[in-house]
Amino acid sequence: MSIKNLLQGKLGFGTAPLGNMFRDIPEEEALATVDAAWDHGVRYFDAAPLYGAGLAEIRLGNALAKRNRDDYFLSTKVGRVILDELEEPSQRDMGEKGGLFEFGRRNKIVNDYSADATLRSIEDSLKRLKTDRLDIVYVHDAAQDFYGDGWLAQFEIARTGAFRVLARLQEEGVIKGWGLGVNRVEPIELAMELDEARPTVSLLAGRYTLLDHERALQRLMPQAAKQNVDIVVGGPYSSGILAGGTHFEYQKAPPEILAKVERLKAVAQRHGVSIKSAALQFSLANPAVAAVIPGASRPERIAEDQAALAEVIPAAFWHELREQKLVARDAPLPVDFTA
């Protein structure tokens, strides 16, 4: 079953920022942000043990404890086990994302995609999230950006461990779906080619945005549509650079990215369009995409996201993006689906 039939709207909430990504977020502000999302109709929440070593899950669990569990859709991730043992967050090996959660909890994070670790991770997440069930479970970061040349070895551990556990849980009706939660297209492509335990949904962060979508369009999106694998787009603002921030790929944006953003902004300004609106609506225009889940750590950002989703963007804007080659020629655009 497609999760499109289960979600209440196409805008979800990615909770990575609630794990104190980039800054130390006050508890009240974090909880108020989740409340704001709820008040604006958001009913899909995504978390992960990695986000602040469990901090995002704890905060999300506290915020949603007062809600009826049947009223929202929840996903989290496996592949990391959080220990009681402490470590220095700034010394963690985070691949290309070093220091991302240095303001999070100091609990030690162990990478482990085995069957036993998958079950333990789910059990621990349920406790932190204060719930009795999960809807979707993603296998987190079994990809190049975290493991470099060793990513295929980690993927193989996941294939014989986490994948089989999650496929069984879906068959038993314990979860509604499972897949990969990654920042690279290749792991999802590889998983969709497997003869056994193939994903039914996957979360792709940062790889289907206005700034970066060509690679996903080559194989992933067409194959996902063919196999009825729903794609949830994370990081539609490319780590914030498309929402007025300075980060791209979780780091300071390089000059070539800043230059492209300025070109996009110039076109947007000519047509009176918000760049945030263009970013959200671009990602959702692909038929394979079930939802987008931008992150937020301030309550006011939620209203901005809702306004961006509702904004009416003139067809001329999309046509100019295509003419200026600021989007791939074969990228589906909202204008392609209007009479």
Overview of this protein structure:
The chain has 339 residues and is α/β, with parallel strands linked by helices. The protein has a single domain, classed as NADP-dependent oxidoreductase domain (TIM Barrel, Alpha-Beta Barrel). The chain has 13 helices and twelve strands. Strands 1-2-3-6-7-8-9-12 form an eight-stranded parallel sheet. It has a two-stranded antiparallel sheet with strand order 4-5. It has a two-stranded antiparallel ribbon with strand order 10-11. Helix 2 links the parallel strand 2 and strand 3. Helix 7 runs parallel beside helix 9. The radius of gyration is 19 Å and the shape is globular.
CATH topology: TIM Barrel
**Percent range of helical residues:** 25-40%
Which homologous superfamily in CATH is the superfamily? NADP-dependent oxidoreductase domain
- Shape annotation: globular
Give the key terms:
two-stranded antiparallel ribbon; 339 residues; 38% helix; TIM Barrel; alpha/beta; 16% strand; 8-stranded parallel beta sheet
